[in-house]
Design brief:
Blueprint (H helix, E strand, L loop, with lengths): L13 H8 L5 E9 L8 E11 L2 E8 L3 E6 L2 E6 L5 E4 L4 H15 L2 H7 E8 L2 E8 L2 H4 L2 E9 L2 E9 L5 E5 H10 L5 H6 L7
Helix pairs in contact: 2-3
Length: 202
Amino acid sequence: MALPSAAQPGAVDSAWILQRLARPAPVSTPFVELRGSALLKEPLRIEGEYARLDDATLVRRVRTPYAETTTIRGDQATIVRGNRSPRTFALSRAPELAGLQASFGALLAGDAAALERDYRIQADGTRADWTLVLEPRAAAMAARVADITLRGRGAELRCIETRPVEGELQRTLLAGAARAAVEAGAGADHQALCREPGAAAR
């Protein structure tokens, strides 16, 4: 008979995970994202970098296949694409970006209180292979996003899987998983890199 998660050797809880994911600003990490669409034969692969410049500012820089910078600060987002003029709007108009700030920003800041305010949290796994599932509490975001699953090992967040209420799962590889995807190129198995269990964790 399988042991309950909490009784398994090396089992983790949300506090253990959040404590290890916290990074003082400034900090950055590469990402590789697959974005599906009914208009595309294959998912669009996007490469870039996330950067937390300070405690209030999260930046998403896309380098391939186009150039775009999204800066999220407070309750506003500003998007600059190519040579076009910047567009600034309230995060309330973009629940996905609000979710990014609330989840990824709060994780890097080590702000467990903010994360628990915005999401119902469930942790599972071991120090070498853990998951953290976030279910939105706010009705506006819950109408668009069913849940967000973070996957990692030790102190490394390797993947974020966002499951929309409608549409396809969106998978974003981070850190070592993103670097491995870039090295592998078009032949990268993004799902395997996202869910690859680690060796001994810190």
